[in-house]
Amino acid sequence: MMNAAFPQVRIVPIRMLKPQTAERLLNMLAGIAGIRRMMIHGPGLPKLVPYGPARGRPNPHSDRRAIQVGDAEIALRIQLGEVILEVEDASVIEEIRSRCDGFFVEFPYQLQEGRFMKTAPTLVDYAKYGPDADTTLIGLADPRNGESPVVIWTER
Amino acid sequence: MAYKPQYGPGTSIVAENRRKQMNPGQKLEKVRSVTDEDIVLILGHRAPGSAYPSAHPPLTEQQEPDCPMRKLVKPTEGAKAGDRVRYIQFADSMFNAPSQPYQRTYTEMYRFRGIDPGTLSGRQIVECRERDLEKYSKELIETEMFDPALVGIRGATVHGHSLRLAEDGMMFDMLQRNVLGEDGIVKYVKNQIGEPLDRAVAVGKPMDQNWLKAHTTIFHSLVGTPYRDDTEYIEYVQRIHSLRTKYGFMPKEE
């Protein structure tokens, strides 16, 4: 089991971010040492129209595109509403706060501390991934989607 | 003494706007102009220029039963021609959109004839004969009841009315039916159910914050007029709440 004592924070901007801004924000966060896990969250931008008479037709959307974070490419399929982070210790939170204060100048944001991410596998995770699942990756990706988390390597 | 409807309580600008929209005697301010063809494209029920498909023969060609009600109520143009029943649906952002579902239904019931509105928490649909629908839609889109950024014409997949706005001030739409162009004009690139249009339909520039705050019919404690500031409104709602709670016990006002 993972150490549940790692602090977690959530960055909630007052506006939902466009891919360009999301890319800049995530790159800024990727440059901070001491972030263990990061999750982006927001309403989905489906590839196909999900409801109504046009159900199943393609859904072109300019905000559903790939962004480059560090050395990794992330296929964005949500509009970014919040970023959840798990960090090594409380000093990293202050670093995140000071960087975010400089980043969000056009509209405000909130930095909340709390529990926002799974810290231990649930019964469903056990059934899905078995007893030897990598606990660092549990809860980071939608298990129904089949997409795995992206690993960002940064120089330290 | 003749009865004069009051339309609603309240002393705030929001209450004033609600009464203004509901009162059919008040002309709504025309803010933008959209052509008939554009409306037909956004609605997506028929191709522009094509004839109206009909659900039944025109009333003049039909044998109408001898009915006093039919003599009393004049049919609308659409009903006269036997048009199909079609719909338009709106989603209104909670961030100072000029109208909202309940308000839309009240307004339409006071102003339009031959309609069947459906009111939900985040969307409002109105059904009527196709010919009438296009006329009513034009009025709903061209007047102060519409804002290109904060009101969405969404037949399906309406999610977004309670979400934070995007950076450019647009309400979230997972189907991206309308986009804010470089020129600052909002264009519909898909019809209301999310099928791409052959050409973009411009619906004008988003209104500025001051205009929205002065024309909204939604109370919002953070970005607009707080509900608690309108004491008359609260008093009225509390009275209704109290009376309907006591209703089962044969209420008598003290």
Write the layout of secondary structure elements.
The complex is a heterodimer of chains A (156) and B (254).
Chain A: E1 8-13, H1 19-30, E2 35-41, E3 66-69, E4 72-75, E5 82-87, H2 90-103, E6 109-113, H3 123-129
Antiparallel strand pairs in A: 1-5, 1-6, 2-5, 3-4
Chain B: H1 13-22, H2 36-43, H3 68-72, H4 77-81, E1 85-92, H5 101-111, E2 115-119, E3 124-129, H6 130-142, E4 151-153, E5 178-180, E6 186-190, E7 196-202, H7 209-215, H8 231-246
Antiparallel strand pairs in B: 1-3, 1-4, 2-3, 5-6, 6-7
Helix pairs in contact in B: 2-6
Q: What does this protein structure show overall?
A:
By secondary structure, chain A is α+β, with helices and mostly antiparallel strands. Chain A is built from three helices and six strands, in the order E-H-E-E-E-E-H-E-H. Chain A has helices at residues 19-30, 90-103, 123-129; strands at 8-13, 35-41, 66-69, 72-75, 82-87, 109-113. In chain A, strands 2-5-1-6 form a four-stranded antiparallel sheet, with helices on one face. The longest helix of chain A has 14 residues, at 90-103. Chain A is globular, with a radius of gyration of 17 Å. With 254 residues, chain B is an alpha+beta fold. Chain B has eight helices and seven strands; from the N terminus they run ααααβαββαββββαα. In chain B, the strands form two sheets. In chain B, strands 2-3-1-4 form a four-stranded antiparallel sheet. In chain B, a hairpin with a 5-residue loop joins strand 6 (186-190) and strand 7. In chain B, helix 2 (36-43) packs across helix 6. The longest helix of chain B is centred in the last third of the chain and has 16 residues, at 231-246.
